Amino acid sequence: AMEKHYMSMFLLLVAISCALGKDTGKKETKETTAKPKLPQTLSRGWGDQLIWTQTYEEALFRAKHGNKPLMIIHHLDDCPHSQALKKVFAEHKDIQKLAEKFVLLNLVYETTDKNLSPDGQYVPRILFIDPSLTVRADITGRYSNRLYAYEPSDISLLYSNMQKALKLLKTEL
């Protein structure tokens, strides 16, 4: 009888600790969804449901072998312009949908490839590279002094440039 009593006390404690464990788990997820801890996934907040490549080399390989255009976003975590563009990009449903047709890479560091900074190293800047691994210097934003810069107000231009990159793919290759 004593064993049964201990066993039921033990099971009760297990049940209570499980219930408490679940509650603390819920609290943590609420906090983490509100404020993601860095470093996050490869998306870095640009679109968590999208597939992002890890390195420039991997992105080039996937673009070439998958016959898809590559979209490279250069940005910095502590740059307010990058943050503003990221927010608009991530919340723009059409852009997120269209982005699925690209090989995607976002970089918080500069590459040694000079082709990726045709007019200087500034952020945020977005470049498109076709599957023949040519940087599309003809797909630019609206600033003559920073050809590949986009601001949140340029999101529709970015969207049409993404469409252009996909159209060029069909007509040229």
Tell me what you see in this structure:
The chain has helices at residues 2-34, 56-66, 80-91, 93-99, 155-172, and strands at residues 70-74, 103-107, 125-129. It is 47% helix and 9% strand. The relative contact order is 0.14. It is elongated. It has a domain at 56-114 and 123-166: Glutaredoxin (3-Layer(aba) Sandwich), CATH 3.40.30. It has a 3-stranded mixed beta sheet, with helices on one face. The protein has 173 residues and is mainly α. The chain has 5 helices and 3 strands.
Task: List its salient traits.
about 170 residues, mainly alpha, Glutaredoxin, three-stranded mixed beta sheet, 3 strands, about 10% strand, AGR2 protein, Thioredoxin-like_sf, endoplasmic reticulum, secreted
List the helices and strands and how they pair.
Layout: H1 2-34, H2 56-66, E1 70-74, H3 80-91, H4 93-99, E2 103-107, E3 125-129, H5 155-172
Parallel strand pairs: 1-2
Antiparallel strand pairs: 1-3
Helix pairs in contact: 4-5
Main location: endoplasmic reticulum
Pfam families: Thioredoxin_7
Family: Belongs to the AGR family.
Describe the structure concisely for a colleague.
It comes from Haliaeetus albicilla. The chain has five helices and three strands; from the N terminus they run ααβααββα. The chain has about 170 residues and is mainly alpha-helical.
